[in-house]
Amino acid sequence: MAILAVIIAVVYGSFSTAGKNIEQAEESRDETDLARTLISRLSDDIANAYVNTAMNSQAKITVFYGKKEEVESGSEKVRHDSISLTTLTNFPRPDTKEMDLWEVGYFFKEKPEGQGYALYRREKRTLNKDMPALEGGDEYEITDKVRSLQLRYTNDEKNWVDEWKQSTLPKAVEITLVLNSGKAYVTQVDVVSTAR
User: Which of 57-61, 66-70, 180-184 is modeled with the greatest confidence?
Assistant: First the structure.
């Protein structure tokens, strides 16, 4: 009986350790998948950004705005940057007058009762002068697993700035995404569309 008890204890300990290792591996995989998905979506929108000054007479319809924002997180400040842009990544829904061009935005909102922040996305599928840029659209929560989002912009790849408020597009954008676990993901996106 004593030998059987020792064998059962060893087997149970092995299964318990293996189970914990599997859980940790799955969490790490899920986290990496989330980061890849977020960076891919954001990169696609930025790479296909479109600004046309001719469309912006009377009311701005096409935009590219990046804003630096910081919030207190414990004893330090973390970046919660936001971006709003018109981009050629829309897949028009059937039987609508939608174009490939739409306005999207990424920003943080504080969760109810101060339980942290969540990353949101805003989509405006129809662009017209009655609804100027940065107004209207539908917004939804993407995730609450992002600790920090930092965006930097450049026209020459030497001088980087933390905000973009010009009427033209930057040549490149650097994205730094930090998840709640502390893992950081960094990429640089070239803007392929050109301002007109």
Answer: 66-70
Task: Locate 190 and state its tokens.
Answer: 């070239």
Q: How many other CB atoms are found less than 10 A from the CB of residue 71? A: 13
- Reply yes or no on whether the pLDDT at 195 is more than 60: no
Q: What is the pTM of this model?
A: 0.83
Q: Where are the domains of the chain?
A: 26-190
